LacI family transcriptional regulator (Permianibacter aggregans), 806 residues
Amino acid sequence: MSKSLLAEQPLRAVPALKPIDTPKTCVEPGEDYRRLAERRHAWSAWPDGDTVTGPPLRSSSMSIKGKPTSFDIAYLAGVSQPTVSRALRGSPLVNEETRNRILDIARQLNYKVDKNASSLRSQQSGTIALLLFEDPTPDDSHINPFFLSMLGSITRACARRGFDLLVSFQQLSNDWHRDYEDSNKADGLILLGYGDYLDYREKLEKLSAQGTHFVRWGAVMEGQPGVSIGCDNYQGGLDITAHLLAKGHTQIAFLGDTSESCPELRDRFLGYQQALKNAGIDTAPALQVDAITTENSGYESLRELLSRGVAFDAIFGASDAIAIGAMRALLEHGYKIPSEIAVAGFDDIPLASYVNPPLTTVLQDTKQAGELLVDNLLRLIHNEPVVSTTIAPRLIVRRSCGG
Amino acid sequence: MSKSLLAEQPLRAVPALKPIDTPKTCVEPGEDYRRLAERRHAWSAWPDGDTVTGPPLRSSSMSIKGKPTSFDIAYLAGVSQPTVSRALRGSPLVNEETRNRILDIARQLNYKVDKNASSLRSQQSGTIALLLFEDPTPDDSHINPFFLSMLGSITRACARRGFDLLVSFQQLSNDWHRDYEDSNKADGLILLGYGDYLDYREKLEKLSAQGTHFVRWGAVMEGQPGVSIGCDNYQGGLDITAHLLAKGHTQIAFLGDTSESCPELRDRFLGYQQALKNAGIDTAPALQVDAITTENSGYESLRELLSRGVAFDAIFGASDAIAIGAMRALLEHGYKIPSEIAVAGFDDIPLASYVNPPLTTVLQDTKQAGELLVDNLLRLIHNEPVVSTTIAPRLIVRRSCGG
DNA sequence: CTGAAAGCGCTTACAG
DNA sequence: CTGAAAGCGCTTACAG
């Protein structure tokens, strides 16, 4: 008996609990689909269920237990199962009248193509996996809101293209054990997150060598493995530093890691240096303090800066989280923002407009970023040429750098 | 030839572009797996690739092109393919030595079980789908941060249980067309989001009737279809209103929709009413203004309240978004918070601690909520008994209601 | 435009 | 503890 006809089987029974493995009806040589389907359907008791009345049916009403398959549709439509498959996928090969009949029946039975079967056969899953790395905050604290925003835009971009999105949080230190593409659960990967780039890079090279389809959000550099999409961090750093200079600040501290481990922050730093250079100002090493993208790190880095005893009249936090942490430290120490110290950030997370005073920062367009990431990944999957790209930053002026 | 041995096929070619459908080697009756595997492997040229040296191999080094299958592992381990399958799933039936040999080879080949095949056969996907409804904000604006926080905790809860998470944004008005469970892409659904409950409820009943496994986050009420997990909104509303009363406020306005469409806000309102009653205070209808959970709606509702000309000394925003919008309106109108007007919210979104003054609110423990949602859904999937549950709210006292 | 046949790569009774 | 056989529900050449 076909599984879909097992009247005894409770609707949607969980296979793990009630294993069933009865042989399915076989086609005798020479027997046609019509007769097969009839035999399949004749065996069941049709006790109840949805009522279907399609054009070419022998009996005017019949029912199907359990999830209908394409064979059930085929029987009811009086066609072969492959024709059903073609019709449902919109193949132009199928006669329009036939197609409509099939679609109609499928709708009535609430038929859904089994994704596992179609993915297995076609070797395409219609799914993208998003791996979110969050090494700086391995605890259950809040995820960086910038990535949350990216997640939102990626989800929407996938949906618009008819792809599903698998979301997975990973420690950068993990082995990325659950390899979504190798297990055929996803056609490609989007990598998102902060962490030690040197560590990260090794894994990227591995992925690249394996031929995995992936794009990552992050610094765009020469000779990187794979495809990267990122903000033009250099330009953003330059723009906001120029803004601080234009507001009359000259002793601008930079809070952020400038090592190879954080190429994004490093690029922002290089932009900062260039802006100063353009203004004829030397970069004072004492005005740079390492920090990673968390509020606490920003807070600590400002205290470190204060302890150095160097004079400064402005802060450029390499990310909003750093800048907001620094603001907290400044306020605690009695500084007035922006009248005594100006503060600027980078990212334009939602919080930036709510802190007091509202934070002047650099917007990274997450919507565009999500679109680009998904588009480029799909290109990779289709073996089309893809190049790493940067998106343009945009200065968002609020009150933290003065009127 | 087996697909995995097609030397001409480029590594990871995309099937859509290079369709290949060559027959696979057949077992002649009486022929054993060993011989089959040898024939399969003998056909290939072994030009290059990973080198494997397992214990019982004839040749000391051989390579496999493309993704290895369980048949490849079986050949190399000198066992049948089902034994490989058992060993990899940790079946106790497999001899330990055999298992280790198999695991070793699988590791060397970087073998990953094909999820589509295993899900198809076992009818279990090991995946949960999260449907996020966001009807009040159908544009590309920011997702409600409370749901983002839930998303994070749900993702982690799934990962801890070895489940993958499919994320999908839906309009409540949609037909939820892509039915993840019916297409066997997911074993169950988690529903999350705001929207008109009456609308929503219809769909829940449909899902329930179809036998879909789902749990939702939201108001827990008698006679609801399916399983709900939610905060004890009544208690939370009562607690925070009692707090406002204890701070000496007696004319407390409630901003939030109290209709059947928003049972969560309604429950908070009922708690608010009860707290006032306990204090011997009548609820003035003029002190209640409808609002949905967005900042703009909160802003507008406060302006509506002001236009009514009723006296009030405190605001209970039925959600943080509403409260924060109301704060903005109050500040614009020159009111001092909390000295002139106290403000309280509900949710404890990350922003709550950053607004000025920091917002006193009710915490909904998203971590616990995520765990409960996932646990209960898994119980449903395993046909274990499940009941709707509320989680306890927790008062978070900050400065917006006065010292 | 349609159908018969094969096969995607697993898991699951069943038999020994 | 292991293997031979069947089958999950599709899609894809192939032939007409």
Remarks:
- Residues 233-364 of chain B form a domain with the Rossmann fold fold (CATH 3.40.50.2300).
- Residues 3, 21-24, 69-71, 81-82, 85-86, 89, 113-122 of chain B lie near DNA strand C (CB under 10 Å from a C1').
- The CA atoms of residues 48 and 63 of chain B lie 6 Å apart.
- The mean pLDDT of chain B is 81.
